[in-house]
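Batch job 17 of 40 flagged for manual review because the log was empty.
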Amino acid sequence: MRVISGSAKGRRLKMVPGEGTRPVGDKVKQALFNILGADIEGATFLDLFAGTGSVGIEALSRGAARAVFVESDRMAAKIIGDNLAYTGLADRAQVVRGDAFRFLGGARREAFDFVYIAPPQYADLWRLILSALDAHPDWLNPDGMAIAQINPVEYNELSLTALRFFDQRKYGSTLLCFYEKPGD
């Protein structure tokens, strides 16, 4: 796994040993950032269930102003820190070792332009996180976006009030679902 573009382009990232994480492939990551385009520049990015930190690191490499990585696994959180140091992006990042639900349930520290959600498969965690974001839309800036990375078999429509589903893209066994918080 590598950083595809930007200031850290070509840097290979450390992987979390074992089966506990499911890193996004380079093809899907490239497609995601092609969709986000120049909107990533200067943006704030929240990477929930961050794993290796690959997606948030890609955002920073492409010009995001700041990224927060939330990961409950101790080894994965350490690897995110190592990857940030290796890519030279640690000064614009924060790694939070903790539960994504507790993080979102706590006092909001800041709002984000993008929230990336890539939980373990087949546990409906993506639905629960999107419901939590919908209940607390102040986690997203106006016109902010939440993106869920799931297996296509997990998908079903959600009943949301503050967030609006607007797109999905399938890449093999990965489905990216896009939700936006309409501007005020």
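Reviewer: the log was empty due to a logging misconfiguration, but the result itself is present. The radius of gyration is 15 Å. Unflagging and moving on to job 18.
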